[in-house]
Amino acid sequence: IAGITQAPTSQILAAGRRMTLRCTQDMRHNAMYWYRQDLGLGLRLIHYSNTAGTTGKGEVPDGYSVSRANTDDFPLTLASAVPSQTSVYFCASRENRGLNTEAFFGQGTRLTVV
Amino acid sequence: AQSVTQLGSHVSVSEGALVLLRCNYSSSVPPYLFWYVQYPNQGLQLLLKYTTGATLVKGINGFEAEFKKSETSFHLTKPSAHMSDAAEYFCAVSAMNTGFQKLVFGTGTRLLVSP
Q1: Mind listing the pLDDT tens digit for each residue in B21-55?
Q2: Which of A4, A45, A90 sits opposite B102 (nearest CB)?
């Protein structure tokens, strides 16, 4: 059982470069999310998708974009990386059945922008 | 808007001692609350959740949490800490915001367990 797979697990990236973080789920969940985790700030929502073909902005969307061409994949792109985007990124998915459903998380991508 | 506050960024206990991690919530509607655990270099894993019904919720690894509406709290407890419990713990509330559902997380509490 894979659940949610993120790639790469870690990356060092030069500032100004473009980078796509990959996320794939095999649970057929409608909703998917990208969070970033920073010390002392917990997890903050970057972008979300309620269902394939739709996306929306979370709390901290600037500098990031997402797409949702199908149910399983939800890539996150940094168009031009900056050092403040150094963080651990988590992809999550959730059944869109109601507020009582939990989210499932990937193992994370540790990104360092230098 | 729904939110959660975790009191204490770090909690230290001795092995065998009671674990108490605090979480208070703010919500204008009946909340759905979650506790997640994050072991080093791993993703978040669900410990337990409160939806409706019984206010004492039992989770995995011997953890439990009690929903107290009068105190707007959902504290996480374990009677006897193990070394393997050392991890970061996140409280979260489920929220509806302009047509989509999301989890809003607290800032986390790191549990340190000493021998």
Answers
A1: 999 999 878 889 999 999 988 999 999 999 888 88
A2: A45
Give the span between the Cα atoms of B1 and B80, in whole angstroms.
35
Contact B9 A40 (CB under 8 A): yes
CA distance B86 to chain A (A): 17
Q: Please state, in angstroms and as integers, the Cα–Cα distance from residue A46 to each residue in A70, A77, B41, B71, following that order.
A: 19, 11, 20, 31
Cα–Cα distance for residue pair A81/A112, rounded to 1 Å: 10
Q: Please count the CA atoms within 13 angstroms of the CA of B45 that sit on its side-chain side.
A: 14
Instruction: Give the C-alpha separation, A52 to A93, whole Å.
Output: 12
Q: What is the DSSP letter of B80?
A: S
pLDDT in tens, A91-105: 999 987 777 888 999
CA closest to B93 among chain A residues? A99
Measured CA to CA, the distance from residue A101 to residue B66 in angstroms comes to 18
Any A CB within 8 A of B67 CB = no
**Chain B residue with the nearest C-alpha to that of A9:** B41
CB within 8 Å: A48 and B52: no
Using CA atoms, how far residue B45 sits from A69, A105, B42, in Å, is: 27, 7, 9
How far apart are alpha carbons B111 and B86 in whole angstroms?
Answer: 5
